[in-house]
Specification:
The chain is mainly beta. The chain contains no helices and four strands. It is globular, with a radius of gyration of 11 Å.
């Protein structure tokens, strides 16, 4: 899971135990609604953005 630098969007990697397997879900933090999904390769683990919200 990665929060965007502006704290508006969270990207969640959907592993093998959810309905959207092999996808990254994009959630709007204001409405907490699913905005979009992105199909990825074999696994959606290990999402990392250089320009992201600070960890602390």
């Amino acid at each position: 899971m990665v929060l965007s630098a502006d704290n508006k969007i969270v990207f969640i990697g959907c592993g093998s135990h959810v309905p959207l397997t092999r996808h990254v879900s994009i959630i709007d933090m204001k409405t907490l609604k699913l905005v979009n999904t992105i199909k990825v390769g074999r696994s959606a683990h290990g999402i990392y953005f250089y320009n992201r919200a600070p960890l602390f």
